[in-house]
TrEMBL record:
Annotated EC: 6.3.1.5
GO annotation, cellular component aspect: cytoplasm
Regions that span the bilayer: none
Name of the gene: nadE
Residues the record lists as binding deamido-NAD(+): 138, 171, 178, 258-259
Protein name: NH(3)-dependent NAD(+) synthetase
Catalytic reaction(s) noted: deamido-NAD(+) + NH4(+) + ATP = AMP + diphosphate + NAD(+) + H(+)
Family: Belongs to the NAD synthetase family.
Source species of the chain: Salicibibacter cibi
Amino acid sequence: MQQEAIIRALNVQQTISPDEEYEKRKGFLKSYAKHTGANGFVLGISGGQDSTLLGKMAQEAVEELRKEENGRYQFIALRLPFGKQHDEDDANEALAFIQPDRTETIDIQPAVDASAKSFALAFDRELSDFHKGNTKARERMKVQYDVAAAFGLLVIGTDHAAEAITGFFTKHGDGACDIVPLYGLNKRQGKALLRMLDAPSSTYMKTPTADLEDDRPGLSDEEALGLTYDEIDDFLEGKTTSDKVENKLIHYYQVTEHKRRTPVSPQDEWWNHK
Ligand SMILES: Nc1ncnc2c1ncn2[C@@H]1O[C@H](COP(=O)(O)OP(=O)(O)OC[C@H]2O[C@@H]([n+]3cccc(C(=O)O)c3)[C@H](O)[C@@H]2O)[C@@H](O)[C@H]1O
Ligand SMILES: Nc1ncnc2c1ncn2[C@@H]1O[C@H](COP(=O)(O)OP(=O)(O)OP(=O)(O)O)[C@@H](O)[C@H]1O
Ligand SMILES: [Mg+2]
């Protein structure tokens, strides 16, 4: 029962046609840009699966808009390493596949270090490595909003069902954006879209990582969550999983509800019915 309710709430389809799904979502990007009058999109490209897929979709969307409408649309890809990124080659491979109109790099380390230093000075203790990881995600969000404001763009975000279900994103960090074109897809459906696009296999075979902690570089999402994406995807497709997996996912879903909602107001009741 709870599984069905979660699948419905996250809008997951049991099966998809990769071709149609991709075109539908790209069409949404185009319609929304036209509706808002925005000049296009900005997105951080990490070298991981999700930003490779969304970056490609955004680039194709603006190319089509330029042909159909006028020349003002553009996609700006941002490389946002924290100092030197250990898997920079993957990011370069993603960019070679996407071929963005424009790519710029901003090192987020000075800003993140300055924030951590100010915190330590004020509270006489260090920000934990885990919390500094969330500061990295929020710094990336800030940079994308600076670029969006300067060029009249929309910030696109990579959140999808396999992350939304566990709340595996930083609140107001990578979770903050204007539109979420991949919403409702699970991880293997995202993979299927990249395969359909003939993306280099390394872009979708790469181990998913948030890569936010200094002490555990490249920590895999699956290790951090104690769940595999296959388990998460099976659950989201309505398949039977072990009791342990099901209970864990339902627990994650419930305790992260606040991350999928707008800030809680006195008028909100959803939190009081659990
Ligand atoms: N019940 C509640 N109602 C309203 N607000 C509540 C709350 N409980 C906590 N909060 C607030 O939420 C904050 C905690 O949320 P948050 O700051 O997000 O922090 P949190 O959920 O603890 O950590 C974020 C997780 O997402 C992972 N992540 C982040 C970014 C990218 C990726 C990736 O896959 O690429 C993964 C990261 O590795 C970590 O495991 C609290 O500090 C508090 O301010
Ligand atoms: N080093 C980085 N440079 C630029 N953008 C980044 C970087 N790290 C994270 N991001 C942004 O944060 C988003 C969330 O990261 P997340 O790890 O969920 O996605 P991903 O790296 O694209 O794919 P995967 O989940 O398979 O690793 C990315 O899609 C990207 O837009
Ligand atoms: Mg990643």
